[in-house]
From TrEMBL:
<keyword id="KW-0472">Membrane</keyword>
<keyword id="KW-1133">Transmembrane helix</keyword>
<protein>
    <submittedName>
        <fullName>DUF4870 domain-containing protein</fullName>
    </submittedName>
</protein>
<dbReference type="InterPro" id="IPR019109">
    <property type="entry name" value="MamF_MmsF"/>
</dbReference>
<dbReference type="Pfam" id="PF09685">
    <property type="entry name" value="MamF_MmsF"/>
</dbReference>
<feature type="transmembrane region" description="Helical">
    <location>
        <begin position="57"/>
        <end position="79"/>
    </location>
</feature>
<feature type="transmembrane region" description="Helical">
    <location>
        <begin position="106"/>
        <end position="133"/>
    </location>
</feature>
<feature type="transmembrane region" description="Helical">
    <location>
        <begin position="12"/>
        <end position="36"/>
    </location>
</feature>
<keyword id="KW-0812">Transmembrane</keyword>
């Protein structure tokens, strides 16, 4: 049987990852602080803390992979056929540069990667809320697609 205090702490660990929307790296700092201060008190808190932190680290890994693909492709596609004089002439650079003839397979890959990133952030938010509800009910929840960095 899981005590109410343990349920509340585990729920707060999951919900503290949402601080990323207000405080940079809050999704790592606050769960680690709460988990490390309470992990020896309860196996339930320890398990939920590890799951929340591992999920956040996994999301960071997936985000970095998406950025490594998308950012260089966008930079390359923007500056591929552009000279400094085209930008400095006062012409509307964006409208002149982006039209259907300039869209290549690699740009489509970058767009898909950005859409995948947005999808990951939405799924991350939903899974955090779901894991918080499970922890509040005293149930164990393991996030999908999580690499176990902390065992």
């Amino acid at each position: 049987m899981v005590l109410t205090n343990e349920k509340n702490t585990a729920t707060f660990i999951h919900l503290s990852t949402l601080s990323q929307y207000i405080i940079p790296f809050g999704n790592y700092i606050f769960p680690i602080i709460i988990w490390s201060s309470k992990k020896n008190e309860s196996e339930f808190i320890d398990m939920n803390g590890k799951n929340a932190i591992n999920f956040q680290l996994s999301m960071f890994l997936y985000t970095m992979v998406a950025a490594v693909i998308a950012i260089p492709v966008f930079i390359y596609s923007i500056f591929n056929n552009t000279t400094i004089t085209n930008i400095h002439d006062g012409r509307d650079f964006i409208i002149d540069h982006f039209h259907a003839g300039n869209v290549s397979g690699i740009v489509i890959l970058a767009i898909i990667t950005v859409l995948l990133f947005c999808f990951l952030k939405v799924i991350e938010f939903i899974l955090i809320i779901y894991a918080s509800a499970k922890a509040s009910n005293g149930e164990a929840y393991k996030y999908p697609l999580t690499v176990n960095f902390i065992k």
